[in-house]
């Protein structure tokens, strides 16, 4: 691979400016680049030293001035795990967000917030946005602003689920989504084909909510002949440090799992008589 020098005017805007978008579309065509994946945005530039997005200051009143830089987290923590034949994965890097980061004691209530942070990091690291990863306070403030939660939600330890994550993504990133509802945990494999199609077409991480625990789903392997599915689970309930990826993998905080397996945090991975919602973000078709 080789760096490409692509010069744009900074006053044209990066994401929304029509002139800048048309220039990128033309350059994508001339260079043979994908027509629906960002490759020449300013966020694709090779960074020299830490930067803070110039327009990441309280755009709609719900985000902090700087947010969280996903590159301060472990990226692609699943790298090095065995990949069974037929595996389909999220495409592109993501950052691992989990309990107790950012000096936030969210053990016991923050797993869905952490899954949301991982999903937002995917959009940031794959250049669909220049927005930083939101804090718990940012997420709560946005949901209150949208009218989904009362003001008493601010600063609370209340759980959120797939629906709240979808509302946040739509507001914060202008990203649409699909929710797959599974009536029982022991019926999760029935969504194997739908999940394969999601990772093939969208390639975004999926938040698994409902039950007692929330997870981030990075990929699946579906056996058509048996109707069985394996799930690459990224578990946000980890409370340790980020210095040793091999330890995280060894303790199965990121691991291939199936129905009937135990969750690393304890209990069943999928509780058989509990419903689940799978939040599937839709990737924007943009350059």
Question: Into which percent range does the helicity of residues fall?
Answer: 10-25%
- Structural class, please? alpha+beta
> Approximately what portion of the residues adopt beta-strand conformation?
5-15%
SSE ordering: HEHHHEHEEEHEE
* Mean of residue pLDDT values: 87
The description of the largest β-sheet is: 7 strands, antiparallel
Globular, elongated, flat, extended or rod-shaped: what is the shape? globular
Low-confidence stretches: 50-65
* Helix run count: 6
Radius of gyration: 19 Å
Distance from first to last alpha carbon: 19 Å
- Tell how many strands the DSSP assignment holds: 7
Structure, explained:
This protein is of the alpha+beta class and 287 residues long. It contains 6 helices and 7 strands, in the order αβαααβαβββαββ. Strands 1, 2, 3, 4, 5, 6 and 7 form a 7-stranded antiparallel beta sheet that branches. The protein is globular and about 55 Å long. Mean pLDDT is 87; it is low at 50-65.
Structural topology:
Layout: H1 18-31, E1 87-89, H2 111-125, H3 136-145, H4 162-172, E2 177-182, H5 192-201, E3 206-210, E4 215-223, E5 228-234, H6 245-250, E6 254-257, E7 276-281
Antiparallel strand pairs: 1-4, 2-7, 3-4, 3-7, 4-5, 5-6
Q: Quick recap of the structure?
A:
This protein is of the alpha+beta class.
Question: What are the salient characteristics of this protein?
Answer:
287 residues, seven-stranded antiparallel sheet, alpha+beta, single chain
């Amino acid at each position: 691979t080789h760096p490409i020098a692509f010069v744009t005017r900074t006053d044209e805007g990066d994401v929304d400016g029509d002139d800048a978008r048309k220039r990128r579309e033309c350059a994508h065509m001339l260079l043979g680049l994908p027509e629906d994946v960002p490759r020449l945005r300013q966020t694709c530039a090779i960074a020299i030293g830490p930067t803070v997005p110039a327009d990441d200051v309280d755009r709609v009143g719900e985000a902090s001035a700087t947010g969280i830089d996903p590159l301060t987290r472990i990226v692609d923590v699943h790298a090095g795990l065995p990949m069974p034949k037929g595996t389909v994965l999220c495409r592109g890097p993501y950052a691992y967000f989990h309990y107790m980061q950012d000096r936030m004691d969210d053990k016991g209530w923050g797993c869905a917030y952490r899954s949301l942070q991982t999903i937002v990091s995917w959009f940031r690291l794959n250049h669909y946005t220049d927005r930083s990863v939101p804090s718990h306070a940012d997420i709560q403030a946005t949901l209150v602003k949208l009218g989904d939660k009362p003001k008493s939600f601010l600063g609370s330890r209340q759980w959120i689920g797939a629906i709240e994550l979808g509302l946040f993504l739509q507001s914060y990133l202008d990203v649409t989504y699909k929710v797959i509802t599974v009536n029982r945990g022991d019926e999760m494999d029935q969504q194997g084909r739908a999940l394969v199609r999601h990772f093939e077409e969208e390639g975004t991480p999926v938040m698994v909510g409902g039950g007692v625990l929330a997870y981030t789903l990075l990929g699946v392997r579906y056996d058509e002949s048996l109707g069985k599915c394996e799930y690459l689970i990224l578990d946000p309930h980890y409370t340790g440090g980020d210095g040793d990826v091999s330890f995280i993998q060894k303790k199965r905080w990121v691991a291939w799992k199936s129905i009937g397996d135990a969750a690393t945090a304890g209990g069943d991975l999928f509780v058989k008589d509990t419903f689940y919602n799978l939040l599937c973000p839709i990737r924007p078709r943009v350059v």
